[in-house]
Amino acid sequence: MKSTLKITALLAVLSFAQQASAATIRLTGSTAFRGGVHKAVVALMGGEANCKFAHGKINLSATTANQAGYEGADYTTIQGTLSGISGTSTVYCSWTGSATGISDVASGASIGFIPTSALPGSNGYTNAAITQPATENAVAQIAFSDIFQSSTSISTPALTDTQVAIIPFTWVANRLSTGFDNITAQQARALFTNGLQPKSLLTGNAAHTDYVLPLGRDNGSGTRGTMLAETKYGVFTPVQQWKIVTAGSAGSGTVTSAQLWPIGDGEGATSAGNGGYSSGSFIRTILGMSSTSGVELLDENGDSAGSGLAVTLVSCLGVGDAVTAVTNGGVRLKYEGVLYDGSNPDLIYNGLYTMWGYLHLYTNGAAAGDLLTFKNGIGTQLDNPAVLGSNGLRVTQMLVGRQFDGAVVGP
What we know:
Elements: H1 2-21, E1 24-29, H2 34-44, E2 52-56, H3 67-71, E3 75-80, E4 89-94, H4 98-107, E5 110-113, E6 129-130, E7 136-139, E8 142-145, E9 160-173, E10 182-183, H5 185-194, E11 197-198, H6 200-203, E12 211-214, H7 222-230, E13 242-247, E14 254-260, H8 280-286, E15 295-298, E16 304-309, E17 311-318, H9 319-327, E18 331-335, H10 346-349, E19 356-363, H11 369-381, H12 385-388
Parallel strand pairs: 1-4, 1-8, 2-6, 10-18, 12-17, 14-15
Antiparallel strand pairs: 2-3, 3-4, 5-7, 8-19, 9-17, 9-18, 9-19, 11-12, 13-14, 15-16
Helix pairs in contact: 2-11, 8-9
């Protein structure tokens, strides 16, 4: 009897130890690369059949119980067994932007995540729980960022930086846009300085007097930081961007009005035009709308500055969001005469296409224990083309590099 009791007690201790070793990992940061990180987490858990999923969107728009819905979500909670960590682990993701993520990890701020109570009873993408509220507040341990910490306003503490992938970005014009297929750094600077420019600036045809308007992210975004650094506009220089109202659905809907971004509307909106969208998922939807007529322009106060207009909208997006925008009718643009669509990585590996940034994995101090195991596993997965897909490129294959955002690209 005593022997049986000892064995029972030992099994209970072992069971408790296994449960205790299960990890809770919380991620935040780059929305441009959320699809790649989501894939890497699933790979670390041995595939979707071994995972439970709950996900939702920042903008409360509908998402779907499938792989695309999960990979494109702004909030996700995934549960399964992580490679190298015993027990059932939970990975929480709250994708709010690179600079915002750096700030939150550096300061230890609590941010919103989807709680485990939202998880479904069954594994697999098709059984995912579709939810909107991110009601559980906690501190993230890892921030993924498209930009160096030096491109943010957060100088201390200096976070531990591991570069795990390359994030390409691409310019897209909205549905039914015509007349130009390229944008240069100079043209981008003119747009973000003035807020609008005649279309002739991009087409070279003086008869094209319709306006081109820039859309973009708020100043918590690495996409914005990368784009402003690469075009030599200045990461910290205020921009002139527009907030769009649409009617209908992406792929068939229309733009009804464009307002110079109002002061006080969201992060960084301290001057007229300087605000922006908190996720690329907003912009990719807008770029699937047409704006060939009937658009009203509004100033930052909401007063009309023109009506019945035809305009063209342009923005710089991560490759995943750009693919969705193009699928819905958006027009992919060349940058400085070079077209990158995700299928031609050698353009970046060899240095011809330069609208890209490193994917940084930031921790507040050196990772240890389960967090280190997870960090190393994610790094391995993000060097796998099957996991990266079109979301990013392998940093180990780069024949060129840059020392900071917007720096010269070279060997």
